[in-house]
Amino acid sequence: MRHGWPIAFEGGPILLPVETSIAREATSPLMLISAARGATLKLANQREAAEPHAPVLIRGGEPLDLRTALPIADPALDLANPLKGPFKAEHIDWCDAALAAMELARIAGILPAFLVDPDNAGEAQPISAGDVDAWSEPDRLQIATRARLPIAASETAEIVAFRSADDTREHVALVIGRQQGDVEPLVRLHSECLTGDILGSLKCDCGPQLDAALAAMAAEAERGGWGVLLYMRQEGRGIGLVNKLRAYRLQDQGFDTIEANQRLGLPDEARDFSTAARMLDLLGVRGIRLMTNNPRKVVALENAGVAVSERVPHQLPDNPHNARYLATKRDKSGHLLG
Ligand SMILES: Nc1nc2c(ncn2[C@@H]2O[C@H](COP(=O)(O)OP(=O)(O)OP(=O)(O)O)[C@@H](O)[C@H]2O)c(=O)[nH]1
Ligand SMILES: [Zn+2]
Questions:
Q1: CB 280 within 8 A of CB 184
Q2: Which atom of ligand 1 lies closest to the CA of 189?
Q3: Best label site of 58, 127, 180, 328, fewest CB within 10 Å?
Q4: How far apart are CA 6 and CA 32, in angstroms?
């Protein structure tokens, strides 16, 4: 997907990703986009779609090339390209392939939009919908290596790196203090946020939450306990850095953090917490005390077999740039924030 290769789904047509396509001369009258995008484009006969990220097949009056397809794919370009269409929605009789293609776009971090059976697409890569499921199977994850890693918060930390076949993302765990089978660790499940963790972004609470979690685990180790930070490479709640930044552009137009993801045709929450459970399992951790304000994380970990004996609140002070983001988490995502 990231290479821009056309893909040939078993039982479906050839699909060429609009954002990254290497076949610059490709054209097609048909495009696969999200229902959210279809709604914004005011499709003539669009049926009600349950999910904003559900796939919709559209036909334009004239064949689309990549130049005309990109503004159809990218809502962040709407202000600059107001006039598009008209389009008609068509029935999809290769639903599994269409759903898998949308999921692949999310995993690849690109816009969920494809030219369908295009001319001049070049040779397509064969793939089946089952390949996408197999790729995200947590059991494929293994410990790759571990090393002592003194950090500013604690000199007694150890880093453990995890890898899975075909997935280039490497998750890590930081174990702080001495691991003891009979003592439940304090655990923080942190999802990657390059802007917050590294650059000090004020738009979210990730950076302060990460720092405070490490400090709390170090204090726990001082008291004879221990902690585990799981650092999961699922940036932007699973939509990737570039799509998160597109969502930020939409947030600057007035959409909240959930609406912005949906308007991009992506799930508002696409994180995979069963991989975190697999990491704990590989570390030999069965029961935890979880630092979070998000009850859905607790439920997701428990459903994946981790016993969460306590939810430890993890609220940090807000600022003028993240106050709306935190309010949306509280009001729409069920976060327990005071
Ligand atoms: N798509 C998107 N992702 C965001 C946005 N702001 C932060 N994120 C991502 O959200 C994730 C951080 O969420 P967390 O703090 O781990 O989890 P949480 O569900 O908020 O719950 P807590 O455990 O209470 O913090 C990271 O992957 C961030 O990149 C945003 O506006 N849009
Ligand atoms: Zn963040």
A1: no
A2: 16
A3: 180
A4: 13
> Which chain residues have CB less than 5 Å from ligand 2, an ion?
193, 196, 204, 206
Instruction: Classify strands 114-116 and 125-127 as parallel, antiparallel or unpaired.
Output: unpaired
pLDDT at site 40:
85
Question: Ligand 1 atom 18: the closest Cα is on which residue?
Answer: 294
pLDDT at 121: 93
Q: Quote the Cα angle for 293-295-296, to 5°.
A: 120
| Ligand 1 neighbour 236 (Cβ under 6 A) | yes
Q: Kindly give the distance from the C-alpha atom of residue 193 to the centroid of ligand 2, in angstroms, as a whole number.
A: 5
pLDDT in tens, 172-220: 999 999 999 999 999 999 999 999 999 999 999 999 999 999 999 999 9
CA dihedral over 37, 232, 218, 227, signed as positive or negative: positive
Write out pLDDT tens, residues 93-138: 999 999 999 999 999 999 999 999 999 999 999 998 888 888 888 9
The C-alpha atoms of residue 311 and residue 294 are separated, in whole angstroms, by 9
Compute, in angstroms, the gap from residue 299 CA to the centroid of ligand 2: 22
Q: Would you state the structure tokens that stand for residue 317, as one six-digit string?
A: 């002070």
Give catalytic status of residue 37 as yes or no.
no
Q: How confident is the model over 28-48, as a mean pLDDT?
A: 82
* DSSP for 175-210, written as a single string: EES---TTSPPEEEEEE--IIIIIT--SSSSHHHHH
Q: In a mutational test of the pocket of ligand 1, which residue from 169, 198, 202, 237 has the highest number of ligand atoms less than 8 Å from its CB?
A: 237
Q: Does residue 49 have a pLDDT over 70? A: no
Is 70 exceeded by the pLDDT of residue 304?
Answer: yes
Would you tell me the crossing angle of helices 295-303 and 273-283 to the nearest 10 degrees? 60
Catalytic choice (271, 278, 286, 330): 271
How far, in Å, is the centroid of ligand 1 from the Cα of 203? 10
